[in-house]
Amino acid sequence: MEKITITLNVNNESHEVLVAPNDTLLEVLRDQLDFTGSKESCGEGVCGSCTVHMDGKPVRACLTLALEAENIEIKTVEGLANGDELSPLQQSFIDHGAVQCGFCTPGMLMSADALLNNNRQPDEATVRKAISGNICRCTGYAKIVHAVAHAHNPHQGCCDCNHKE
Amino acid sequence: MRLPRFEYLEPDDLTQALDMLASHKEDVKIIAGGTDLLVRMKNQLLTPAFVMSMKQLSGLSYIKNHDDTLTIGAKTTLADIVDSDDIQEGYTALAQAAERVGAETIQHHRGTISGNILQDTRCIHYNQSRFHRSGRQPCHKDGGKICYARDEGDRCYSTYQGDMAPALIALEAKVVLSKKDGKRTINLSDLFTSDGFHPFSIEPDELLTEIILPKQKNNSKSAYQRLSYRSAIDYPITSAGVMINSKAEKIKKARIVVGSMSRAPLFMVKASETLAEKSLTDIDAFKEAAGIAMDNAGTFAVHNAGSTLEYRCDMTFVMVLKALEQAAGIEK
C-alpha cells in the first residue's frame, strides 16, 4: 500500500499532500492541512459535523476518500468568511445565539450555506430539511433554523434580527 | 474510526474497470459514492484487498429518454434523479424513493442509484462496530453459525433496507450487468437471491452499468412510501412502492412491492392481482390489497430492524395503502 501525492484544492488554494488510499478527506484536511474547522464526531456519516462542499455540494468528508477528492473544489468552514469579515450566515448564527457548544456549527454552516446559495429566502420547512442530516446535541435547532432563514432577509418580528442597532 | 488498509484502483474507462474486476474478482469492492461501503469498512465488516473507484467513469452518469424506455446510468447520483423532470413525471415512485434516502448532505450528492440498489442487507446485530461484535460469537453473516435475530435461525435473516429497489421493481425495471466478455440484462427482481448472506446474484466480475425502465402504456402512476424513526438518518423499517396502470378509471395492472421486511424487496403477487379491473376510487379494494400485502410480508420479517415486528407489520398495511391512494390520486 503505497502513498500517493495528490493536489487538493481547498478554499481556492492548491495543496500538495501525500495520502494513503485509506485516508479520508476529513483526516487529510484536519491532520495534514490543519483545517480543523471540520469536525469528526461519529465518523460514519450520521452526525454531519464533518460536512464540506465538493464543487458546491454538501458532502460528508468522513465518508469521502481523499483520493476521490482530487481535482475537485473543496470548501471548508474556514472558506466562508472573507478575511476577517464574517459571511452573513456566520454573523446571523452569532446574532441569533445559534451556537451553544459549537461542535455541530461548522457542519451546520456548510449545509446551510449550500442551501442559501440556491435559495436566498428559504422558509422554515426548507431550512429544516436542508439541515436534517446535521445533529445538534445541545438541542438548539430553533435558533439555528432562525439564523439560517433570516441570514439574508432579517425578519420584522424576530428580536435577534433587530437587536443590533 | 480508521479505514482498514487497501489498494486503490482507478480505472480510466469501463473496459479497464471490467478488466480489473475480471482479474481481482472477490478481492475487489467497488466504490461509487462510498456512503454505504466506507461505513461497512470502518466497522470492519468488509476488509477488501482492493477498492476500485468509479470516479473516472463519468460516461455512466446519465438519464436518457428513448422511445419505449428510459435508461439511467449506474453512476447517476440520487440528486440528479430527484431533479430529473422525466423521472418526476413518468416514474414518480423512483423520484420519491431517491428523495427519501437519508439526508441531502449525506447521500444525495455522493450516493448513486447502483450503489443504493446494491447496498448489503442489514441487521441490528450485525451492523455494529468490531468492538461491539467482539463481545459474542459471530453470526451467520459474520462467518459464524448463530443467528441473534431469530431463535434457532439456521441462516442469515438480515433485512434488505434499500429505498430504490422497491420503487424500481414496482416500475418493472431491468438492470444491465456487464463483464469482460459481454453483458446480460435481467429483471431487477432477479438480482435478489433472498439469501441474507449473499443477497445479490451479481457475479464478482460483473458491474451494474445501467438501469432500464420501460415506458408504461395506458395511464400509469406510481408512488413510494416509507417509514423510519428519523427520516434523515435511519433506514426504513417498512416501505412500499406501487405502480397502478389504468384505463378509463379502471385498474388494468397494479404492482405492489414491499421493502425492508425481508432479505429482498417483496413483489406482492396476490395483493397486486386483487386490484385488477377495480375502480381507481375503490378504497375498499385498496384496503383489501394492503391487508393481503401485510399478511404476506409479515411471514418473512424477523425482529432485526429496531422496532417490534407487530408494529412493522401494521405499518406495512399503512404504507401500502398510502402509496396506493397516492398513485390513484385519491389521497386525503
Descriptive notes:
- The complex is a heterodimer of chains A (165) and B (332).
- In chain A, 30% of the residues lie in helices and 15% in strands.
- With 165 residues, chain A is an alpha+beta fold.
- In chain A, strands 2-1-5-3-4 form a five-stranded mixed β-sheet, sandwiched between helices.
- In chain A, strand 1 (4-10) and strand 2 form a beta hairpin.
- In chain A, helix 2 crosses helix 5.
- Chain B has 332 residues and is α+β, with helices and mostly antiparallel strands.
- A five-stranded antiparallel β-sheet of chain B has the order 4-5-8-6-7. A four-stranded antiparallel β-sheet of chain B has the order 9-10-11-12, sandwiched between helices. Chain B has a three-stranded parallel β-sheet with strand order 1-3-2, covered by helices on one side.
- Chain B is globular.
- The N and C termini of chain B lie far apart (46 Å).
- The interface between A and B is medium-sized, with 33 and 30 residues.
Contiguous uncertain segments of 5+ residues of chain A:
none
CATH superfamily of the largest domain in chain A: Beta-grasp domain
Number of helices of chain B: 13
Mean pLDDT over all positions of chain A: 93
Gyration radius of chain B, in Å = 20 Å
Q: Estimate what percentage of residues of chain B fall within beta strands.
A: 15-25%
Radius of gyration of chain A: 16 Å
Please give the CATH architecture of the domain at 58-118 and 159-214 in chain B.
2-Layer Sandwich
How would the global form of chain B be characterised?
A: globular
Structural class of chain A: alpha+beta
